[in-house]
């Protein structure tokens, strides 16, 4: 699966040597992600602050100054837990959405862990959109991992030249609340992490139509293409993203734009 994903990014067959090397590196970086995610709990704050380097945080400040909250949309790259921990340590009201894992004890482990890192956690379940909308009206920063479609609620977009299914959530949430939608990425560096927060996307408020949701999601996919192309092995994607792979594994891509519009 990883080789198939990286072959699209690199534009090479899945059995090409470069793809094989990138795939091995992807597993090594994913192992590092897990180690450092849990090590953050005992890492002194001054070390976290030193190792986490960020550009564009003023875009978050500008969005919060407008008073309608901020949505930070990012791919599964680098270490997003380090980003959340750093933002919380700097006093930002950060909210993350957590997929409900099974068994429940595993979900509780991650819930307690990320709460200890300073993040407010909202479970991915019925009514999550309304809860996030309410938190945005209270001027929170909502972080959404937005490169993997969970549960069939996806929007079909062109992604590295092939139809892929990305989550429908960020676009309608930004459109209905007026919150700033910022593309964001975290990269793994030799001695820490490097984060880039992009400028607010042009998202007209109030429009939840299917075409509008698809257009915004397509723009976000373009940002993710650039982020991932800069460090393909740092993309922690171990599941199907492209519609051809979803069909191969017996999953329907779904139509999140239609559902969001409804």
Task: Give a description of the structure.
With 262 residues, the chain is an alpha/beta fold. Helices cover 47% and strands 19% of the residues. It contains 11 helices and 9 strands. Strands 1-9-8-2-5-3-4 form a 7-stranded mixed sheet, sandwiched between helices. The protein has a two-stranded antiparallel ribbon with strand order 6-7. Helix 1 crosses helix 2. The protein is globular. It starts with a helix and ends with a helix.
Instruction: Quote the average pLDDT.
Output: 92
Give the uncertain stretches in residue-range form.
254-262
Q: Count every beta strand, where a strand is a DSSP E run of 2 or more residues.
A: 9
**Radius of gyration, Cα only, in angstroms?**
18 Å
Q: Kindly report the spatial arrangement of strands forming the biggest sheet.
A: 1-9-8-2-5-3-4
Percent of sequence in beta strands: 15-25%
Q: Kindly, what is the distance between the CA atoms of the first and last residues, rounded to a whole number of angstroms?
A: 33 Å
User: What string, H for helix and E for strand, traces the elements in order?
Assistant: HHHEHEHEHEHEEEHEEHHH
Main pleated-sheet profile: 7 strands, mixed
Instruction: Specify the structural class.
Output: alpha/beta
How would you sum up the global shape? globular
| Structure annotation, total helices | 11
Q: Helicity level, as a percent range? A: 40-55%
